[in-house]
Structures are given as C-alpha cells and as structure tokens.
Amino acid sequence: MNEFAIEAAASESGPYTEIVSGDLMDARNRECFDIYTEAFIPKQVATVRYLRFRINSVNGYGASLQYLALVGEKKEHCMGNDCPHLLELGDIQARVIQQNQYTDHHPEWFVADKVFTNACDTNDHNQEGQNNYYHGPIGFTGLAFTVDLGSLFYIHEIMLRNSRNGVYNSS
C-alpha cells in the first residue's frame, strides 16, 4: 500500500472526518523487521468510536496492512498520568464491522481484524489460515474497512505498519 487516509466518527452513521492521511513505507523487497511501525499524528485530537481505513493508492499487486494501533485513552477513564497510552485494538475488544478484502483465494486468511496484532507478515500455504495481515482486493482503492472501537476514545496518534504481502512481496 502507498497512500492511505483514516476517517473517524463518534457514531457509525457519521459524519466521518479525515483525521490522518499519508504514505506508508514501501515494504516491497524488505525483510519483515526492516518494515517499521510508523506514527501519524491526527490533524486534531479526535474523539472517536468508529475508524474507517481508506486505501488511496497501491504498490504492485494490491494493498495489504500489517498493523493498526492507537495512542490515546478511553474518554471516560482519563486520569492524570495514565493518559495517553498505546491501545492495542485486540485488547480493547475492537471489532471490524465492514471490510473489502481479497476474495480470490482463501478470503478468510486476509480479514481486517488481522491488523490488531503486530507481527511479521506470513503467507505459508502449508499452514492453512496462517496469514496475519489484511489484504484488499487486487488493485483496489477505496474504503478498505471500518472498525468499531466499542467506546469513545481520545486519539492522539495512529500507529501503522505496512505489509509486504508475505511471499508475494507486493505491498
């Protein structure tokens, strides 16, 4: 993936506002540990429950994303030095409520909730279901997925890590 945007809203029906946009590191021809987690600062501290991840351009075969996390705090629990902190989406029971994903071969391998864990991308066809990253449809740009955080959060920073799409090496 190359260019992306993240939109946020307090309710599922919106209105959604773009809070971050940018370019991710080109992950092609890199080893897993040479693909860094990148930090993006929202245009303003946002109070959000819903995040929409949008793919604006792709490199190679299609867009894939390894990791998405937030730095912030739950709106009703912010007290003193506890705020803000890293919010792993799996730890706060976030859930994907909409996605456009790769469907040509084993679509269950490339679902968007895979971005809740920061790990090296895998694509081992000998281990069914072992892919651990999101992959959009081939050549797809547009709304990739929507995440419900489960509660309102103040978001100060968004952490993203591109994927090289496993053995296909085509972020």
Mean of residue pLDDT values: 81
Q: Could you give a short account of the major beta sheet?
A: 9 strands, antiparallel
E-strand count: 9
Q: So how many helices?
A: 0
Output the structural class. Answer: mainly beta
The domain count comes to 1
What Rg do the Cα atoms give? 15 Å
> What series of H and E elements makes up the topology?
EEEEEEEEE
- Share of helix among residues? under 10%
How far apart, in Å, are the first and last alpha carbons?
A: 5 Å
Unreliable stretches (pLDDT < 50, length at least 5) are: none
Shape summary = globular
Strand content: 35-45%
Descriptive keywords:
171 residues; mainly beta; nine-stranded antiparallel beta sheet; 9 strands; 0% helix; 40% strand; globular
Structure description:
It is a single chain. This protein is mainly beta and 171 residues long. It has one domain. It contains no helices and 9 strands. Strands 1, 2, 3, 4, 5, 6, 7, 8 and 9 form a 9-stranded antiparallel beta sheet that branches. The radius of gyration is 15 Å and the shape is globular.
Give a short synopsis of this structure.
This protein is mainly beta and 171 residues long.
List the helices and strands and how they pair.
Elements lengths: L2 E7 L7 E7 L14 E3 L5 E10 L8 E11 L10 E3 L7 E5 L34 E2 L6 E21 L9
